[in-house]
Amino acid sequence: MSENRGSALLRGRIILGVGGLYTVRSGGQEYGLIKARGIFRKRKIRPVVGDYVDFVPARGEENGWIEAIGERKNVFVRPPVANITQMFIVLTCAPQPDYLLAERLLILCEMHDIRAVVLVNKADMDEGFAASLRDSYEKAGLAALMVSAATGEGIEDLRQRLTAHTSAFAGQSGVGKSSLISRLFPERALEVGNISRRISRGRHTTRHVEMIYISEETRVFDTPGFSLLELPLMDAATLKDYYPQFYPYEGSCRFDGCTHRNEPGCAVRAAAENGEISRMRLELYQRMFAETKEKWDGKYD
Ligand code: GDP
Ligand code: ZN
Q1: Ligand 2 centroid to residue 244 C-alpha, Å
Q2: pTM, entire model
Q3: Residues whose CB falls within 8 Å of the CB of residue 131, separated by 6 or more in sequence, listed in order
Q4: pLDDT tens column, 48-72
Q5: Could you identify the atom of ligand 1 that is nearest to the CA of residue 175?
Q6: What is the DSSP string of 125-176?
Q7: Residue 281 DSSP code
Q8: 29 lines ligand 1 (CB under 6 A)
Q9: What's the 65 CA to ligand 1 centre distance in angstroms?
């Protein structure tokens, strides 16, 4: 066991974890070579990037220890990260939008109390398409922004939205998530690359999840992992709980437990037909309903 057990505890946040060795940020400094106490493994708790921890720093030859993990706002297995507060869902004209992936991500955000922002990237390629895509999501009551990692359009606005958040970028491969992060933080992107290489000690490593501290106020997860998202199995009847724009109409549907698909006297469908709520998102909800039901019904196959 460690000799530095009695040392003063620091409070910080895990920014990197490679092969059971963590790097923790605390008071503007980074502390490497930190391990998790065996007690966590016994309780089947794995510290992940984004966790708030109490830790003892490494000293001399002795590695440091994570002693406690703070309460999590949210936590994910793939990618293994915790405490996201804001997610940018990136869509483009090319590749064409995967609307159902965007929908799953929006539902995920709603489930985990994450602020969702739709980012329409590659605005330089087709301004008209980008503007109409942004408008459709805006009409659905979501924050939506047109940007271009190539020309820098909208990047300042995006940068400001990062303040006071722990943000993640999500979306299909090829939509420009890495390009956006490098455009936002050109110096940091290089620096982080160096840190990874140092920690991997020359071995070939796959990409790790990292939390980049742009400043103490601005943290960004540099992980592509949210592109292959599967929602947890759930009863399709509960899906509408993740569509806040339906809430004001819920009580007005003719049938209790209306799922807003084809029931007569549905107030949500009427609202979409009147243009009060987004028709696009109602349709996507209905497609998500079918997908969710199919998975739920087949869950014992
Ligand atoms: P990721 O897989 O989401 O991380 O996407 P990348 O950042 O690797 O970008 C995929 C491709 O799209 C690359 O060839 C980028 O150069 C290109 N790309 C990214 N952003 C833009 C943009 O705003 N405009 C244009 N025209 N191309 C972009
Ligand atoms: Zn209804």
Answers
A1: 13
A2: 0.90
A3: 123, 146
A4: 999 999 999 999 999 999 999 999 9
A5: 3
A6: T-HHHHHHHHHHHHHTT-EEEE--TTT-TTHHHHHHHTTTEEEEEE-STTSS
A7: H
A8: no
A9: 39
